[in-house]
């Protein structure tokens, strides 16, 4: 079992994200994961830095901790040739500590370059082509590719790590899980859905299974839930909503009625370890072995102390449930 920390790029500026990554390393986390967004989810989040610059700075400030995007969409806002180059460079600068998380994206971030927002089936086709292009470029040399949606012509990534970064493919359904087995090195989800991991394993996927565990630590329960509502109420809308709304203002309106009771149902929360461990156990019981802890509480440094003193050792004893 590896334990990671989700850097909340929408809630903090780039310098603070780098500082938190170094603090996470000092606290004993195995990896940090950071979203690759153009917009924040909610208007009052106020941040959304360029992730590749942040990752380079984290690589320079840290020595041991793994780095990952959670996740990059390599089809609309970026062409996959650019993602292949960016990920290769980050792999080199981090000394092989980088994992490229890749997924089909959300309208929130991808519509900004124009051209509309494709239907889910088309987005999956585009993701498959993008992953094929990235893999092709990472083989070295000049490469061309002509797909239904994406293409490259005589493209070459000159600075390549050996081996290339692993790719964790985000899946919200069985077909994407099978794609992760075919074209990825790991699975990435945000829900404790055992059937996704089963589909990945049945399709031949043998890599790690990443997921995000929603937590909110504070010195009292009410403060934890209020912070979770303020920072993460968008997360209880579900991916069918999260993938389709175009701007923070839309998420502001869509989440106006979300209450603290909704956050209590979705998050481990409060000052003690019990609810937090219970939340993590749901994911371990579903078979996941890379748990990225999401802290929706108001005090990142307090959470790092809490992790070091109360969560680190108990989380290490969790055993991912075997596949049947």
Automatic annotation (TrEMBL):
Task: Cite the EC number.
Answer: 1.-.-.-
- Answer yes or no on keyword Cytoplasm: no
Q: Which keywords belong to this entry?
A: Oxidoreductase
MF GO annotations? oxidoreductase activity
Superkingdom, according to UniProt?
Bacteria
Gene3D superfamilies per the record? Luciferase-like domain
Enzymatic class: oxidoreductase
Database matches in Pfam families: Bac_luciferase (PF00296)
- Domain named Luciferase-like is located at 13-293
The protein here is known as TIGR03557 family F420-dependent LLM class oxidoreductase
The species this protein was found in: Nocardiopsis suaedae
InterPro entries in the cross-refs: F420-G6PD/mer, F420_G6P_DH-rel, Luciferase-like_dom, Luciferase-like_sf
């Amino acid at each position: 079992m590896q334990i990671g920390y989700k850097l909340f790029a929408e809630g903090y500026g780039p310098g603070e994200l780098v500082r938190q990554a170094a603090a996470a390393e000092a606290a004993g986390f195995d990896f940090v994961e950071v979203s690759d967004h153009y917009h924040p989810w909610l208007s009052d989040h106020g941040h959304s830095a360029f992730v590749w610059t942040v990752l380079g700075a984290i690589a320079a400030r840290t020595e041991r901790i793994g780095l990952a995007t959670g996740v990059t969409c390599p089809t609309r806002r970026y062409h996959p040739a650019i993602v292949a180059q960016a990920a290769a460079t980050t792999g080199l600068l981090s000394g092989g500590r980088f994992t490229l998380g890749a997924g089909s994206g959300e309208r929130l971030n991808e519509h900004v370059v124009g051209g509309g927002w494709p239907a889910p089936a088309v987005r999956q086709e585009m993701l498959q082509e993008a992953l094929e292009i990235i893999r092709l470029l990472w083989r070295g040399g000049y490469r061309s590719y002509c797909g239904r949606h994406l293409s490259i012509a005589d493209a070459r990534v000159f600075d390549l790590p050996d081996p290339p970064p692993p790719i964790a493919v985000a899946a919200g359904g069985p077909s994407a899980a099978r794609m992760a087995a075919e074209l990825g090195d790991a699975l990435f989800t945000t829900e404790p859905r055992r059937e996704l991991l089963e589909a990945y394993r049945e399709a031949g996927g043998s890599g790690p299974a990443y997921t995000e565990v929603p937590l909110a630590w504070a010195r009292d329960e009410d403060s934890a839930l209020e912070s979770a509502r303020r920072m993460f109420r968008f997360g209880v809308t579900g991916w069918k909503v999260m993938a389709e709304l175009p701007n923070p203002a839309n998420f502001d309106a869509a989440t106006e009625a979300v209450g603290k009771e909704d956050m209590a149902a979705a998050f481990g929360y409060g000052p003690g370890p019990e609810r937090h461990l219970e939340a993590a156990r749901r994911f371990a019981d579903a078979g996941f072995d890379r748990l990225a802890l999401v802290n929706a509480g108001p005090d990142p440094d307090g959470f790092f102390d809490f992790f070091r003193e109360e969560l680190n050792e108990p989380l290490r004893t969790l055993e991912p449930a075997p596949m049947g």
